[in-house]
Amino acid sequence: MDFEKFNDIRPYKDDEIQAAMHRIAESPHISNIASYLYPGIDVNMFKQLLMSCSTVDDFQKKVMRNVVQKIVSGTMKNLTHSGTENFKEGRRYLLISNHRDIVLDSAVIQFLLNENGVPTTESAVGDNLITSPFIEDVIRSNKMIKVIRSTSPRELYMVSKTLSEYIRTNISQSNSSVWIAQRNGRTKDGLDMTEQGLLKMFDMSGKGDFANDFAELNIMPTSISYEYEPCDILKAVELFIKKRQKYIKGKDEDLNSIITGIMQFKGNVHFSFNEPLTADEIGSAAELDSNERFKALAGIIDKKINSNYKLWKTNYMAYDILNSTNEFANMYSSAEKDEFLNYISFKMQSVEEGLEEVEQILLSIYANPVVTRKNMNL
């Protein structure tokens, strides 16, 4: 791979890790991080751990594994997964998943792959989240690809083409699998749908044969299911505002969402690594004209993501509450429904206007995965 071409977006290589670890260890943030991960430990011991990392794998196994384990044990009731057998030795994949949490979606994927002896992926992350040299060092040491969004429309084509080329080269040359979200930004309304623009971006680096170009990417749709939606009330309020005016992010809003998503209780969480797209599935889309083929391919990915999305009691209860029905009453008890209603009431305490509408939006975030499953006849 011509790394020079991709220097601005690629993760760090092994020979760049020790310098990055030194910079991270000298950061003023390191004391707080050390006290969170290892309460009572001397910060110098944590710095020594960082300095002992000489490769990307070292950093992921010695540091990031403990970070994710701390989050999992502290904010999740159960973390389960399925489909790791779909990773075949020697092959690399493009994981396209629904996107519910800024940091945890990709972080937990790496954790689960590492725990199951599967090579971890590189992960695409928007440059809007890279707010300091410290954060850049951490994420690029953790196999993150920088997705450049803060650019002019004129330059967007070239940076998208470069990203497309980087992802294709990585996978086709068996360097590393790659994770990317199915859309630009998190799903806010609970409706997980793949943006056709994403697929068109992948197509930019192809050779002009739709079927072969997408088969080369080994696309593995991946489903992420949280029992309690990360940043649920923040998403509901944002959707409420967007109905009335253009939504403008506040200062440090992304950072607040990252922290909230990490710290919030998430209940049960399930990750499903689904069977990769087959040549026949891609071929059926390739037979269509122009934009229709991208629409069809997105539909195939969406069907795999949503059919393997694990519906929780929160989803069924929200659907029944919103629709004043007992259609899924066999999936939960009256006590569980009361508990969920108390949870919704607690979340609503921070809302200052549009109480009834925000509550409806909040419930719909939980209900919409059920709506999608019904609409797709899954």
Reconstruct the topology from this structure.
Blueprint: H1 14-25, H2 30-37, H3 43-51, H4 56-75, E1 76-82, E2 94-97, H5 104-115, E3 122-126, H6 133-141, E4 144-147, H7 153-172, E5 178-181, H8 196-203, H9 210-215, E6 219-226, H10 232-242, H11 253-263, E7 267-273, H12 279-286, H13 290-307, H14 313-323, H15 334-348, H16 355-375
Helix pairs in contact: 1-3, 1-6, 4-5, 10-16, 12-13, 14-16
Low-confidence stretches: none
CATH class categorisation of the largest domain: Alpha Beta
Instruction: State the shape.
Output: globular
**What is the CATH topology assignment of the largest domain?**
Glycerol-3-phosphate (1)-acyltransferase
What's the arrangement of strands in the largest beta sheet? 1-7-6-2-5-3-4
Radius of gyration: 21 Å
**Separation of the first and last Cα atoms:** 41 Å
- Written as H for each helix and E for each strand, in order along the chain, the element string is HHHHEEHEHEHEHHEHHEHHHHH
Provide the number of structural domains. Answer: 2
Using DSSP, what is the number of strands?
Answer: 7
The largest β sheet comes out as: 7 strands, mixed
- Proportion in β-strands: 5-15%
| Alpha plus pi helix count | 16
What is the CATH H-level superfamily of the largest domain? Glycerol-3-phosphate (1)-acyltransferase
Q: How confident overall, as mean pLDDT? A: 94
CATH architecture of the largest domain: 3-Layer(aba) Sandwich
What share of residues is helical? 40-55%
